[in-house]
Amino acid sequence: MDNNGRKRVSAYRVGFLGPQGTYSHEVALRLFDDTALLQPYISIDTAIRAVASGEIAECVVPIENSLEGSVNVTLDTLAHDVELLISREIVMPVRHNLLAREVGRSVRRILSHPQALAQCRRTLNRLYPQAESLPVDSTAEAARRVAQGESGLAAIGSRNAAALYGLEIIAADIQDTASNCTRFVTLRVRAADSGLAGPWKTSIVCQIDGSKPGSLYRILAEFAERDVNLTKIESRPARTGLGDYLFFLDMEGGIGEPRIRQALTAVEKQSRWFKNLGSYVVVAWEA
Fold first, then answer.
1. What is the pLDDT of residues 87-109, one digit of tens each?
2. Which distant-in-sequence residues (6+ apart) come within 8 Å of 153 by Cβ?
3. Which of the residues 66, 90, 156, 284 has an alpha carbon 20 to 30 A from that of 129?
4. How far does Cα 62 stand from its chain's mean position?
5. Which of 16, 77, 123, 184 is catalytic?
């Protein structure tokens, strides 16, 4: 109870890859209103596990980038370590910037998240061929270290990170392609609200019997026969032995559609192991 005798309502706690100023933080601010308590975590898997343990209600994590592909820690943690469901997806246009304390100083070391460093590899080689690239836990952590570190450091991060940590943008839009974007998802224990408007997608992960010719073909045929459009197919090691793989599949449509339910039932029957990662609404990124 508060001082007026009213019952306190616990804040809805949402985790993100921190500290403040990461792209995950920016997505969380966009997806959740000001009644949510946004909580930073040191790593993606720590944020995911916090949802699984009940420490927080939901988290925002990157799952795929248009230049560097899937974020493997997100896929692997979802497949092997937790029982969570995707509840929303949003694709964020990513504009990387090189941040430093002062304009005009030489850059000896460039800090950022490994994905950000990889997304700017060619540009960095052209602009700062002698600079050393140092991976850190997040783009905002890189900005924080540059703000507190010695001269000669720079960070790859967002304009928000520059403002938060008092840094100058010494090179803007340094991603290797202008179409760079990252797909983020929110994860929670319960399924997405079925009444949400917008296009829906469904994601699954399964392991098939690779010793039989045509096993993958028969799995894919279940979707083709029901006119289900697959938007992504990716394999990852199953961790059960060399040559054993899991297949991650994303598709258009939600579990409320009979064709989706029928396809998943058929695929599960043919799989050694099967996991439904949820049906979820796709939220448009509005500038």
1. 999 999 999 999 999 887 789 99
2. 100, 101, 107, 108, 109, 110, 111, 145, 146
3. 66
4. 1
5. 184
Question: Kind and range of the H or E element at 124?
Answer: helix 121-127
User: Is 182 assigned a catalytic role?
Assistant: yes
Please state whether 166 falls in left (phi above 0), alpha (psi between -120 and 50) or beta.
left
| Separation CA 208–CA 210 (nearest Å) | 6
Amino acid in position 28: A
CATH number at residue 235: 3.30.70.260
Q: Could you say which of 22, 74, 77, 182 is catalytic? A: 182
Mean pLDDT (the chain, rounded): 92
User: Number of folded domains in the chain?
Assistant: 3
Residues 124 and 162 reside in one and the same domain: yes
Judge whether 158 lies within some domain. yes
Question: What is the pairing mode between strands 85-93 and 230-237?
Answer: unpaired
Burial of 153 (C-beta count, 10 Å sphere; 0-12/13-18/19+): buried
User: pLDDT tens for residues 17-74?
Assistant: 999 999 999 999 999 998 999 999 999 999 999 999 999 999 999 999 998 899 999 9
State the Cα–Cα distance between residues 15 and 47, nearest whole angstrom. Answer: 6
Q: Give catalytic status of residue 74 as yes or no.
A: no
Q: Which domain holds residue 80?
A: 12-92+181-188
Give the predicted TM-score (pTM) of the model: 0.87
